[in-house]
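Pair request: fold both.
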Amino acid sequence: MQSENPLIADFVKLMNGAAGTLAGMTREARESARERVKETIGGLDFVGREEFDAVKAMAARARDENDALAARIDALEARLAELAGR
């Protein structure tokens, strides 16, 4: 049952227009926020996975080399102490 009252029809048109405007504003706000986030993240200095893995491997090699050198120093110090004790 549709109303013949022009006041009600105008009110319905007004509400439909307001709903459409609100939906449009929501879309614009979402797009604006998305752009701001992209700009913010784009300005950050992230490293790629390949670069991260390469640096991780370099650090592991350096750690292993450091452990080997520490063991060598310990052996040399022990040998020096042995020679000094004679």
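--- second member of the pair ---
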Amino acid sequence: MGLILEEDGSYAILSDILGDEDHLGDMDFKVAGTENGITSLQMDIKVAGITPEIMEKALAQAKDGRMHILGEMNKALSGAGEFSVHAPRIETMNIPTDKIREVIGSGGKVIREIVEVSGAKVDINDDGVIKIASPDGESIKKAYEMIHSIVAEPEEGQIYDGKVVKIVDFGAFVNFFGKRDGLVHVSQIENRRLNHPSDVLKEGQDVKVKLLGFDDRGKVRLSMKVVDQETGEEIKKEEKAED
């Protein structure tokens, strides 16, 4: 908003002033806000004699202009869709500061792998704020998932997709949560006695496991027999009894 004030007290309130009008006017008055009201004001008054009446009219005229601009903006915004998958974007995530070292890895090995595999640029600061940037939405998603798998903790009672990575006499080690492995004891593979885990399992096999908890040393305990290997649903006690 702007103002031209004459010596006889007459005045003109201007909207959308530029250039000479802004420079030569008697008041430069910026009003910002939403549909619900004013959020900020900036005033540069160059003369004396600004009355409450002038201010009232200036604010009313500013509101009319603001509502018009917001209406035009809403016309454009109402038709906006999803960004192109190739549009540059940045995602931000926060991790505990004690997990920063794990994300970076020794000599930056882990974070380099995340960048190489995902194709996204990853920056992390000392407060645990991570910024993931890429023109490819899938790259950002991949980097986010890789970081999340490092910093997140598996939850007791949850069911996870896993892969058998090693078979031993007493069970099978399954990779089930990022790079996290856990043991499925031979007694937790099936609801029957097995001579050896290799009777039903092989390395590289996809399985579904439930996290039973952790032993005294913090090692993960997993179970296959309480999960339907086809549907991934937990087998209820009633169903076990029927079997």
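Observation on the second member. DSSP finds six helices and twelve strands in the chain.
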